[in-house]
């Protein structure tokens, strides 16, 4: 059973109808939420510049700046990048529903609003957002450049390291929501573990794994490390991951450091090392590192 929200859970409700705002404010407060209200997209932007809500409930069709434009502008605020948005629409149209989800919203509800259903959806998306943020914080603390996208290639979250590397390829916050999904869509359908896609002159997206309807990607920089690992792989008949492990072993990294660098568990590092030892016909990491260093020096690395 999902937890009941506490008083610190803030919902921003955006609708140009005072009657709708009053109804939703009363209903959500009675459910234990703290509520902020805005009569326009511009007012919502002003509020979010001062206070970051936990979730936004946005009317899709408003006079002046509509919900979709308001949502796009909200996403330009870095602090709002991962705040879930639920659209409300009075139009019985599949096009509106599709537009809501394609814009990056997590969900939509049909007017007239059924409060019990709305609150259930709000709780579910708040819980999802909390879990995603906690995972992102852990990865950020380890300095990993990781990103997760859904089945439409919409970015669910990414670490600060991933965002920084994408920025080097000219993909900022707006491009992550508009340009990047189309760049990834065809490639990701058939991508296998460790496959890469160039998104800039020196930036690559590397496919890691599928989890349900989501895909985990790593953002990497094309550099001498990649070339050196590729060389070791070709010379010793290693897989791509084994090549990376051997390269970092040759650089004196411990298993714990390797796990953090490559975003894998220490147990997985050990399994790769066992395979590397067999292929190199050695029985310890010192011998494997020596062979790798000799090979790299021969070809001008290091």
Summarize, please.
51% of the residues lie in helices and 17% in strands. The chain is α/β, with parallel strands linked by helices and 302 residues long.
Notes on the protein architecture:
- The protein has 302 residues and is α/β, with parallel strands linked by helices.
- It has 3 domains: 10-133, Rossmann fold; 145-221, no CATH class; 225-298, Arc Repressor Mutant, subunit A (Orthogonal Bundle), CATH 1.10.10.10.
- The protein contains 13 helices and 10 strands.
- The protein has helices spanning 18-30, 41-50, 67-75, 94-102, 115-141, 160-168, 173-178, 180-190, 224-236, 240-250, 255-262, 266-280, 285-298, and strands spanning 10-14, 34-38, 55-59, 85-89, 107-110, 146-149, 155-158, 196-198, 203-211, 214-221.
- A 5-stranded parallel sheet has the order 2-1-3-4-5, with helices on both faces. It has a 5-stranded antiparallel sheet with strand order 7-6-10-9-8.
- Helix 9 crosses helix 10 (240-250), helix 10 packs across helix 12 (266-280) and helix 10 crosses helix 13.
- The chain is elongated and about 75 Å long.
- 30% of the residues are buried.
């Amino acid at each position: 059973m999902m937890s009941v929200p506490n008083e610190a859970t803030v919902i921003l409700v955006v609708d140009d109808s005072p009657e709708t705002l009053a109804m939703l404010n009363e209903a959500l407060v009675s459910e234990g939420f703290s509520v902020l209200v805005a009569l326009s997209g511009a007012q919502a932007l002003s509020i979010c510049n001062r206070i970051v809500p936990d979730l936004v409930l946005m009317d899709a069709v408003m006079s002046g700046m509509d919900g979709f434009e308001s949502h796009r502008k909200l996403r330009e605020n870095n602090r709002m990048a991962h705040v879930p948005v639920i659209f409300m629409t009075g139009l019985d149209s599949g096009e509106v529903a599709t537009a809501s989800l394609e814009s990056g919203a997590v969900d939509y509800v049909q007017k007239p609003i059924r409060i019990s259903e709305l609150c259930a959806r709000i709780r579910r998306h708040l819980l999802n957002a909390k879990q995603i943020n906690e995972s992102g914080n852990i990865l950020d603390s380890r300095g990993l450049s990781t990103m997760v996208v859904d089945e439409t290639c919409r970015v669910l979250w990414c670490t600060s390291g991933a965002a920084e590397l994408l920025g080097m390829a000219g993909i900022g916050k707006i491009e992550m929501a508009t340009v990047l999904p189309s760049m990834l869509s065809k490639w990701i359908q058939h991508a296998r573990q460790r496959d890469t896609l160039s998104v800039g002159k020196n930036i690559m997206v590397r496919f890691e794994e599928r989890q349900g309807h989501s895909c985990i990607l790593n953002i990497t920089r094309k550099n001498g490390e990649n070339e050196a690992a590729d060389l070791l792989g070709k010379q010793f008949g290693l897989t791509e991951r084994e090549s990376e492990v051997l390269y970092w072993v040759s650089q004196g990294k411990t298993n714990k450091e390797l796990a953090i660098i490559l975003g894998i568990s220490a147990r997985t590092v050990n399994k790769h090392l066992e395979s590397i030892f067999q292929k190199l016909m050695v029985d310890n990491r010192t011998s494997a590192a020596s062979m790798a260093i000799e090979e790299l020096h021969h070809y001008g690395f290091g």
